[in-house]
Design a protein that fits this description.
By secondary structure, the chain is α+β, with helices and mostly antiparallel strands. Helices cover about 20% and strands about 30% of the residues. The two termini are about 25 Å apart.
Length: about 120
C-alpha cells in the first residue's frame, strides 16, 4: 500500500480503505470498521528480521509494505509482496501459529487487535 509516511503510518482514510478490502475484517459494519481502523498498529520489519507466528496470536497481521517470506511447516515458503491480492489476507491463521515470517526487504506490517475485532463482530 502506498502513502506510508516516514514513521510507517497510514492516515485514517488509508487505514479504513485497507480494512474495507481485508479478510475477515471487511465483514464488520461500517461504524465498527471505522472504530477498528483507529486502533491499527503499524510495525516496521527490517530486512532479514524473522517474526514467529506464535508471538502474534493476539493480532491479525497483514503486509502493508515490502516483501516477506512465510514459512509454514512441511510446505514451500510463500513469497508475499505489497500491492498484491495476498496482502489483504492475514499472514498467520489461528491454525498455523508455528509459521515464521522473514522480511526479504524492509517491510511494514499492519496489525489489528484480534480481541477487538471479535468484540465488534
Amino acid at each position: 500500500m502506498t502513502g506510508i509516511n516516514k514513521d510507517h503510518q497510514l492516515d485514517s482514510q488509508q487505514r479504513l480503505a485497507f480494512l474495507e478490502k481485508a479478510e475477515p475484517v471487511r465483514e464488520l459494519e461500517a461504524d465498527n470498521l471505522t472504530r477498528l481502523a483507529e486502533h491499527i498498529v503499524m510495525t516496521p520489519m527490517p530486512a532479514g528480521n524473522v517474526l514467529l507466528g506464535k508471538a502474534e496470536q493476539g493480532w491479525i497481521v497483514y503486509l502493508s509494505q515490502g516483501v516477506v517470506e512465510l514459512q509454514r511447516k512441511k510446505t514451500m515458503p510463500e513469497r508475499i509482496e505489497q500491492n498484491t491480492p495476498r496482502t489483504f489476507y492475514p499472514l498467520f491463521t489461528e491454525q498455523d501459529y508455528s509459521s515464521e515470517l522473514k522480511a526479504l526487504e524492509n517491510a511494514v506490517l499492519l496489525k489489528v487487535n484480534r480481541n477487538m475485532f471479535n468484540a465488534l463482530l
